[in-house]
Amino acid sequence: MIEEYRFGKIIINGEEYDYDVELDWEGKILKWTRGSSHIIDKEDIKRALEKEPEIIVIGTGESGVAQVTEGAKQACKEAGVKLLIDITEEAVKTFNVIYEESLEEDGEQAKVIGLFHLTC
After folding, report:
1. Which domains, and CATH codes, for the chain?
2. Which of 42, 51, 52, 99 has the highest local Cβ count within 10 Å?
3. Which stretches of 8-110 are DSSP H helices?
4. Which pTM value belongs to this model?
């Protein structure tokens, strides 16, 4: 699904995006905006949580500058959503593995959402 990530760009299903994205298990791609560029709080993941995913993968940028608050982590915990956080390059790989292997292994697509910060 995600073909490439490099600083400031991500290619998903042949389309290139130069802004932070939210990608869900159905292939829906939305612009991901936050209240603060490098702070990821519960309000910033609210839309993703409303879709009732099983897993949220957050990419914190090329160098991992973006920080996920305890409030965001707690919101995932309360919703019963597994939260995986890593630099964006690794988060993209994780998302792809979960997306592809869940269908192959379980015969059912995992409800995974990726939130990817593309810079810093």
Report:
1. 2-117 (3.40.1230.10)
2. 99
3. 46-50, 70-79, 88-106
4. 0.95
